[in-house]
Amino acid sequence: MQHSNKYILIYSIVMVVIVAVSLTIVAVQLKPAQDENIRIEKMQNILSSVNIPIAEIPKKEISALYDKYITSAVAVNVKGEEVITDATQVFKIEVVNELKKPDDQQSLPVFIARLDNGDTAYVLPLRGKGLWGPIWGYISLKSDFNTIYGAMFDHKGETPGLGAEIGQQWFIEPFKGKTIFDQNGKFTSIQIIKGGAADDNPHGVDAISGGTITSKGVEKMIFDNLGSYQAFIQTHKNH
Amino acid sequence: MSEKLTKVEKEPMFSSKILKLLKNPFNLENPITVQVLGICSALAVTVQMKPAIVMALSVTIVTAFSNLIISSLRNTIPSRIRIIVQLVVVAALVIIVDQVLKAFVYDVSKKLSVFVGLIITNCILMGRLEAYAMGNKPWPSFVDGIGNGLGYGMILVIVAFFREVLGSGKILGMKIIPQFLYDSGYMDNGLMILPPMALITIGIIIWVQRSKTPELQEK
What we know:
The structure holds two protein chains of two kinds.
Chain A (H helix, E strand, L loop, with lengths): L4 H45 L9 H11 E7 L5 E3 L2 H6 L2 H6 L7 E7 L5 E10 L4 E9 L5 E8 L13 H4 L18 E3 L10 E3 L5 H17 L1 H8 L2
Parallel strand pairs in A: 7-8
Antiparallel strand pairs in A: 1-2, 1-3, 3-4, 4-5, 5-6
Helix pairs in contact in A: 1-2
Chain B lengths: L15 H8 L15 H6 L4 H25 L8 H23 L1 H7 L1 H4 L5 H9 L6 H31 L1 E2 L2 E2 L3 H5 L11 H18 L7
Antiparallel strand pairs in B: 1-2
């Protein structure tokens, strides 16, 4: 069956227009549900970094739980000054976009959690690079701004069983209770040590065998991101 | 294209011919084990049962509806651009499936990540469109799409079953290996989680199938 060029041209134009219109309708219709999923996931991540077992909690209750624990949020600049204090505004900040800006124009979020025992924990977002793509997470500090209370990590496409283990509990557990400053008050961040960290090392955790580059990526991510909060941490640590 | 315009006798909806279209992909014409198509995604999404099931359903929906659409359009599609037309239809359906997954089963859609998008390049789709939908009526094509999608999905789920049980001791995320076995020294086989074991599992399935089906044995 041979068709004329005119027929082929009109056929393709009509087809493409129909497809484009229907895809647009689908995308617009489903956008709210998708955005809601992303919002819930962010809440889950933040809650998970303050050791709330989110896996056992149905999605519908996450929002209420978030409001219960995360009492406020601020955004701080590189000098440690609070630039945004409206929690809903802070929640909407895309950290990745902020980190692309020059240092003095960034405003980075700090989520403040009120824990069950009355303590306060400060949740800081982390963004970094693994072996195959982006990795991210949240880390929470106790009110001394030195001891790690909890953490969560996630990744786009690290190798299952190797780099992808950063999302697992066994990798995260050792972070808890480690400190990011040494006795002299010098910023040490957290070292992820190949072959295992010594039990008495207050700044070190075990790396993943076979996942060295991802482990190093997590180490660098924590160092870089906590570094951006230096001024904020210092002012609050010493008061 | 071999349509018979003169033949107008009506066939029943579920004649034996139609049922065969549905049944054959499960055994004699299985897309994975016999035609060895769509292996790539079969290796990637079979670590756990849940993503495998969602992937199987997604592929079934896309094969069924792309077959249906292409078959309904088959007399109007200019043969010179037919592959492009097929691709556009498949791509549109895949995007819709991807968007629906993102909206309603977000965690699964994250696990499937790029593999939903890669349904577009799944050889089963283009294979069925070229080999069947372009030359047959919409209803048989639709059934053929469902059959092939499910035939593909069946292998996916079988492979995922073994990989999840042996690799993480779970079925659909629920622990089924009792704790006392772990206490007495049993360990999950980490190798099952890695892609090579998917290939080996599929190999074993092909072996079992061939040894049971004389039609498939090469003399």
